[in-house]
Amino acid sequence: MTYIPAETRYDKMTYRRCGKSGLKLPVISLGLWHNFGNITPFGVQQSLLRTAFDNGITHFDLANNYGPPYGEAERNFGMHMLRDWKPHRDELIISTKAGYDMWKGPYGDFGSRKYLIASLDQSLKRMNVDYVDIFYHHRPDPETPIEETAGALEQILRSGKALYVGVSNYNAEQTAAVVKALGDLKTHLLIHQPSYSMFNRWIEKPMGDTGSLEDVLRREGVGCICFAPLQNGLLTTKYLNGIPADSRAAHDPRYLKPDAITQEKMDKVRALNEIAKKRGQELSQMALAWVLRDEVVTSALIGASRPSQIIENVKALDAAPFTAEELAQIDAILG
């Protein structure tokens, strides 16, 4: 059956400008990290993508090695592209990345020009697209000169294979260095994709004279899209009474191991849940609203295994802004 998007898809979503660029992103974006490999039925994947778009989520985020196996998320997305998304390509922001291990040998990892350009060529073929909107270097390379990595990103822009470039997992100093290297080439870093959540606040912490990653992004006009804002499901009510049999920790512990669900963390989750109840929110919704409380964060990446989770997460936008008292209470709980 031909997919016809909801007419109301842009009515409720909020879109934020990404740093000092002309690009706006939905404040909730869909990551294809966990549930678009061979462990998820194709029909479920299709319903996730359709539900996201019907609710104003225009940004789908991938990487070369998302799966399992490596490349499978992009291959599956390529089939979805042919079935559903070709007519709507200009309404979408599609991103992918390279930087972690992808193929054997010395040319399938880290940050060389050879790897980044070859990987993007492969990704475009798998996804059945002519270009991506955003291409990221997925992690810093301690051995390749930053000028080479930046030069590869700039070359990719000039080739038309990506419209914007970003980085992921760079610390504050590394981010400042790549901003400068790209600036020397008359290119602007659009966006940074760090991990960030109530339980993982590293981007707020100063790093010497450079300041925090948040400081660098604000100062340089770089957008931010945070991954794992729900700490891989820990910042939900799912684990309040143990580990459910159908949970990620039980059947796919690649990203949330059972030993990470400690009593100390669950005590904090329970206390946070009480604040969420008073706000009229689910804990997951409050956790998303919290990472978005400062507009230095352009968007939060969610993962989903069911369409209902996407609908629930988008409702994070319905609640009132945090009061100073609520933020102080949350800080006290998190320590």
The tally of strands reads 10
Please give the alpha-carbon distance between the first and last residues: 51 Å
Name given to the CATH architecture: Alpha-Beta Barrel
Strand order of the largest sheet: 3-4-5-6-7-8-9-10
Instruction: Return the structural class.
Output: alpha/beta
What topology emerges from the helices and strands here?
Layout lengths: L14 E3 L6 E3 L1 E4 L10 H13 L4 E3 L10 H14 L7 E6 L14 H15 L4 E6 L8 H14 L2 E7 L3 H13 L6 E3 L19 H8 L2 E4 L21 H4 L11 H16 L4 H9 L7 E4 L4 H8 L9 H11 L1
Parallel strand pairs: 3-4, 3-10, 4-5, 5-6, 6-7, 7-8, 8-9, 9-10
Antiparallel strand pairs: 1-2
Helix pairs in contact: 2-3, 3-4, 4-5, 5-6, 8-11
Describe the structure.
The protein has 335 residues and is α/β, with parallel strands linked by helices. It contains eleven helices and ten strands. 37% of the residues lie in helices and 13% in strands. Helix 5 runs parallel beside helix 6 and helix 8 runs antiparallel to helix 11 (324-334). The relative contact order is 0.13.
Quick recap of the structure?
By secondary structure, the chain is α/β, with parallel strands linked by helices. Helix content is 37%, strand content 13%. It has eleven helices and ten strands.
